[in-house]
Amino acid sequence: MNVSRRGLLQAAGSVAAGLVIPFYAAPARIARAAAASGPPPVNAFLRIATDDTVSIVLSHVEMGQSIWTGMSMLVAEELDCDWSKVRPEHSGVAPVYNHTRFGFQITGGSSSTNSEFERYRTVGATAKDMLVRAAAARWKVSPARCTVSKGVISHGAKTLTFGQVAEDAMKLKPPASVRLKAPEDWKLLGTIVKRLDTPEKITGKAVFGMDISFPGLRTAVVARPPAFGAKLVRYDAAAALAIPGVEKVVPTDHGVAVVAKHFWAAKLGRDALSLTWSKPEGGGITDATLLADFAARARKPGAVALDTGKVEAAMGAAAARYDVQYDVPYLAHAPMEPLNCTIKIEGNRCDVWSGTQGLTLDRMSVARVLGIPPENVEIHVPFLGGAFGRRGTQTSDFVTEAALVAKAAGVPVKVVWTREDDIRGGYYRPAFLHRVQVGVDKSGMPIAWDHVLVGQSILSQTPLFEKLVKNGVDESSVEGVQDSPYLEAVPAKRVSLHSPKLAVPISWFRAVGHTHTAFAMESMLDELAHAAGKDPLAYRLALLEKKPRHATALKLAAEKGGWGTPLPPGRAHGMAVHEAFGSIVAQLVEVSVERRTIHVHRVTCAVDCGTAVNPLALEAQIQGSVAYALSSILYGKLTFVDGQVQESNFHDYKTLRMFEMPQVAVHVISSGAPMGGIGEPACAPLAPAVANAVFVLTKQRLRTLPLRIA
């Protein structure tokens, strides 16, 4: 008998009844507004069962960033439970789970842990208070005379476990307020804790979207336009329907779906379709003409994001001027698990199984397609096999498409994207061009900075456009330039933006705008330092005199990485520091070049994210960021010809291989600053650090990604 790894999946046991703690900690403004209308809505739940298990329901999704562990640690720290009894799980979708910053349920922006830091600790403290009061009532003593350790409440020789008093505690009124532990009293937070999701993943028990299966489920594969801007003219399904296993062929808003008993039949059926597509209006995007258009736009200022001092006058008085262009291509997210979504419609209700970042938007999209109330759409969230922004698009594209297919087919359907579909399916990191003009004084320090960016606006393709785009400036396009710590030291500066409207769908990408702004800023700083004949570290520190956190991170990376010490022949150092999502990451890289091939041997990172909840998870996120960023730095590029992407799979859209992975050393700075994110910031400074090291070795300034040596 053949048994797959997934076939060994064990059924989850039921959870006994017990204490259910609703918790919510709204921002002060919202809390004050809600006070007059009663208690705030339930935002998440903690369940303590009679068997002592502690189930923590998380409104954010686990996609590899370790929030199953990190957010559970927040509750467990204040609860003082037995960590071995903790059982995290994904929530469903409901308004009560809305992200307090964004106003809807979403996982993104490196915001999961820092946005929940207070309220998840609060629920742990609230539950502990109620459990202690329940135990004290049994013993007829004051709660103040009880102690708690590892899920056991004690009073002298008497003990009760959380599970033994959970039902009594459920009947008590939650306290009006609780006092959270001071950092010096933490026992769990700040310590190294192994991931809770690892055992399930290494044994094959973890369920991902691709694993969803039930009787009657069919698989669909969709033929989509071969070029962005192309439209379906006609199709003939006869050959597809002749494939064994193919049951239906149905049109969607943007293509044709083949529904079959299994994936391979659906794939062969799609290949057999006879399709006629129109050509994109204007012929479609082609790389060479796109770059030329961007360069022409950059010759003039765009919508103004920052304008301080008299730039033209300062530029005219400069001892020397530099005019440099940097550009980056479109990038596909390429998560290891390709996109998929399962839809089951029963009357006016619908169940969705999807590895998604944006539950609220997906629910609204499915409800709109089916013409049913949003509350009739239930979304079940499995583990996500990587996302990087692709599973949280502003249009809920792959979920909306699955709803359309299921509605047209009249059967439960899992829509599966092949790797080729994923690479060519749009919603990319937009291509960008930077024109940077800098005027320096006699010592080589910048006194005028004129920075023009050209690239599509992500927010312009979202419902948030009117609210968040001010005066034509999408802040996600200029982040990392507009707020650069270096520019604060420059007397006259201007940052402006052109946001051309193009047919290529774009969306958030890991580190978003910082993926290109850090490359331009830190490469330019390095160019200026070398032109002035100054040490790149000293040059940066002079500009960061009033930015102690940036300076501290940069000096630590330089010290730990051996800046200024001799390296083996043929190797060189490059550096960069950048702030993103509230965290500062400095990197020193050790690089060699052999036969025009760049090798990154070592990356030393200094990280200031305020507070590190789990240093082990932080280190893993930095390592993952380095691997993900190096894929783009060394290989990542989508090539467009007449609106069509030429790359299709990992053979021509390459990612970093294991043997290419450098050693990564991570040094955490506990600054006590407000907590920043950690899933994305380390992606940003790596490209300029590598390019700066390559310059030392080859004297070539590489201003285009991916890096290519002439």
Descriptive tags:
single chain; disordered N terminus; 27 strands; 5-stranded mixed sheet; alpha+beta; 29% helix; 7-stranded mixed sheet; 710 residues; 23% strand; globular
Helices, by number, come to: 19
Q: Could you tell me the mean pLDDT?
A: 91
Neighbour order of strands in the largest sheet = 10-11-8-18-15-16-17
Strand content: 15-25%
Estimated structural class: alpha+beta
Major sheet details:
7 strands, mixed
The backbone outline, from C-alpha atoms, is globular
Query: Total strand count, please?
Result: 27
Radius of gyration (Å)? 27 Å
Regions with little confidence, pLDDT below 50 for 5+ residues: 1-18, 20-44
Q: Alpha-carbon distance between the termini? A: 56 Å
Helix-residue proportion: 25-40%
Organism: Pendulispora rubella
Protein name: Xanthine dehydrogenase family protein molybdopterin-binding subunit
InterPro entries: Ald_Oxase/Xan_DH_a/b, AldOxase/xan_DH_MoCoBD1, AldOxase/xan_DH_MoCoBD2, AldOxase/xan_DH_Mopterin-bd_sf, N-heterocyclic_Hydroxylase, OxRdtase_Mopterin-bd_su_IorB, TAT_signal
Task: Describe the 3D structure.
With 710 residues, the protein is an alpha+beta fold. The chain is built from 19 helices and 27 strands. The chain has a seven-stranded mixed beta sheet, sandwiched between helices. It has a five-stranded mixed beta sheet with strand order 13-21-20-19-14, with helices on both faces. α3 crosses α4 (162-170) and α10 (359-370) runs parallel beside α11 (397-409). The protein is globular.
